[in-house]
Amino acid sequence: MSASDPDCIFCKIVVGDIPAEIVSTTDHTVAFRDLDPQAPTHVLVIPKRHEPDIGSLAAADAEATIALLGEAKRIAETEGNGSYRLVFNTGADAHQTVFHCHAHVLAGRALGWPPG
């Protein structure tokens, strides 16, 4: 992890200062269960590197971005029913509340449309 923010709750999860129900850890990512699940499977996949959103992560570290997407897919296939939704909220108007890039992996039931 080359970048971190000591005040970021997700950075604290990455280093183990805050407990979480960890689903997986890779060289580039940590995945854990959402505290307020919106589907039977609701896992957050975050990069170990602190970046505020997916666009910033993509610009700063393509390898970490690919790793995050790959891990999200692996978790969805392992825990879901073959169908899943991958959500990145970017910015306050999109209801991003933790400004550390994170993907919501939602699966395990039929998901309605439109989502918002």
UniProtKB/TrEMBL annotation:
The entry's protein name is: HIT domain-containing protein
Gene3D superfamilies per record: HIT-like (3.30.428.10)
Residues forming the HIT domain are 9-116
Determine the domain of life of the protein's source.
Bacteria
From the broadest rank down, the organism's phylogenetic lineage runs: Bacteria, Bacillati, Actinomycetota, Actinomycetes, Propionibacteriales
- State one molecular function term (GO): catalytic activity
Q: Where is this motif: Histidine triad motif?
A: 100-104
Q: Which InterPro entries match?
A: Histidine_triad_HIT, HIT-like, HIT-like_sf
Where do the catalytic residues lie?
A: H102
